[in-house]
Amino acid sequence: MKTTAQLPFEQAHLLHVAPRLRTLQSEGAIHPVRTVDGDEAWLVTGHAEVRALLDDKRLSRSNPDPESAARDSGSVFLAGLLGGFATDHARMREVLEPHFAPARMLALRDHVETLTDHLLGELAAQPAPADLRQALALPLPILVMCEWLGVPHEDKDRFSQWTQDAANVQDRAKSQQGLGELFGYCQNLVADKRQNPGDDAISRLCATEGLKDNEVVGLTALLLFGGFETTVARIGTGALLLLVNPGERQALLDEPSLIPGAVEEILRMSMPNPHNGGMPRYALTDLEIDGTTVRAGDLLLLNIIAANHDETVFADPERVDVTRHNEGSLTFGHGAHYCVGAPLARMQLQVALARLVERFPTMRLAVEVEELRLRHDTLTGGLVELPVTW
Length: 390
Fold this sequence. Notes:
Blueprint: E1 5-6, H1 19-27, E2 30-34, E3 40-44, H2 47-54, E4 59-60, H3 73-82, H4 89-96, H5 102-125, E5 130-131, H6 132-137, H7 139-150, H8 156-166, H9 172-195, H10 201-206, H11 213-243, H12 246-254, H13 259-268, E6 279-283, E7 287-289, E8 292-294, E9 299-302, H14 304-307, H15 342-359, E10 364-365, E11 387-389
Parallel strand pairs: 1-2, 3-9
Antiparallel strand pairs: 2-3, 4-6, 5-11, 6-9, 7-8, 10-11
Helix pairs in contact: 3-9, 5-7, 5-15, 7-11, 8-9, 8-11, 9-11, 11-15, 13-15
């Protein structure tokens, strides 16, 4: 029996998977650990195992016995945000998928390009150095969500603060208050859309036959969070990876058609999150994983980052390669739980990074990489700031 250890989040370098995590991966696909909250869990790190378990009906986001269930900060937050959707997951996916259809994303892309050019123009007009997170990574997803969902622009600062509070993994009371404020705001927003519909995603959800108000509210809150917080973190990650890999950035300048593949590589390379061991799932029955017996009710943490750095699938996995084929990437999940919002996230990243490379070909970090810090208080991770000069 392996020794139960605390989740391995120590990092020798901001841009690489924690050494302890890589060591665990070399020792097997599943490991007994304790969560940040001190509960026992199983950390799954092998690519094949994570991929299979993401689409395994023997696992659930919720535990049949929630009072005695092991938990980590991520599972508590996700349970609050997802609410009762887990029991009606297929129907909710069917409702959401048309809103991310290629034609809708193509129509929205022009607006994203305009917003990005405006933000980069403002950045170019200010003196260097500047914080690229504040200049681009943070405001762009907020403005995109306002346009796509139909959120009044004057409310953007309020809902962005609530989503940040809701994702807090160090202060549970703050997280619960943020969730409450977010849901309350969404209730008012949905009520207004019922009376004053527009050409936006929330109005279209309101018009969906058979969808109740509480379901529209829940979906709106989920889209606000999923489309904002996670995208902010990934734009920052992407910009940083290109800044510290000038050869790959030059390749994008020379051949812009590489941008979609570069985005997939950046998503695969998403940086370690200090407070998220992986996608939380509970075993509904006893099962065996890589020779280890997992009991019904056990908490499993499916570590996407480790799986995306499995060298049996990705050669030299810690090297950024914008020409790499990333068909095996699990960034957006797999199977029935594959992220329905992936097209929107991909499109924003493609536009933001393409425009950034083109507009600022000589941009560089204004500090040493070692001086950069991850956000330790939030489920989504990402950088605290990204100082750059040009």
